Amino acid sequence: MKHTPGPWTQHTPSNPTEAVVIAHELPNYRRTIVAVIPDHRKQGNAAVLDWNEEHANARLIAAAPEMLRALELALIDIENTLRRTFNTDPQTDTTYTIIRNTIRKATGE
């Protein structure tokens, strides 16, 4: 299954005790909810995040589609450069391997 297309937008509530919503905007003021980051202070959880950390996590999630696309393009460039310039198998390059594994993790491959 493919993920919801980007871009994703972070919707920060005016009240800091409400959940942060990550959404894909659609025409006619509709949206697809991608993620909801609850205010952990209201949950009574042991692992309480502070407001800044919650919003940093939301920004990271909202950037995910663009980061995935950037990694996919970087992987192609690294592969082409290693083969053309150094006549090297990209599978042996550490950066290539990290990027490839991260893409696989994100896409479920």
Number of strands: 3
Helicity, in percent?
Answer: 40-55%
The major β-sheet equals: 3 strands, antiparallel
The stretches of 5 or more residues where confidence is low (pLDDT under 50) are none
Q: Which strand-content bin applies to the residues? A: 15-25%
Mass-distribution shape: elongated
Spatial separation of the terminal alpha carbons: 10 Å
How many distinct domains?
Answer: 2
Alpha-carbon Rg, integer: 18 Å
Number of helices: 4
SSE-based structural type: alpha+beta
Average the pLDDT over all residues and give the rounded result: 82
How is this structure best described in words?
- The protein is of the alpha+beta class and 109 residues long.
- It folds into two domains: 9-62; 66-107.
- Helices cover 48% and strands 17% of the residues.
- It has four helices and three strands; from the N terminus they run E-E-E-H-H-H-H.
- Strands 1-2-3 form a three-stranded antiparallel β-sheet, with helices on one face.
- The longest helix is centred in the last third of the chain and has 22 residues, at 64-85.
- The radius of gyration is 18 Å and the shape is elongated.
- The termini are close together.
Could you give a short description of this structure?
This protein is of the alpha+beta class and 109 residues long. The protein has 2 domains: 9-62; 66-107. The chain is 48% helix and 17% strand.
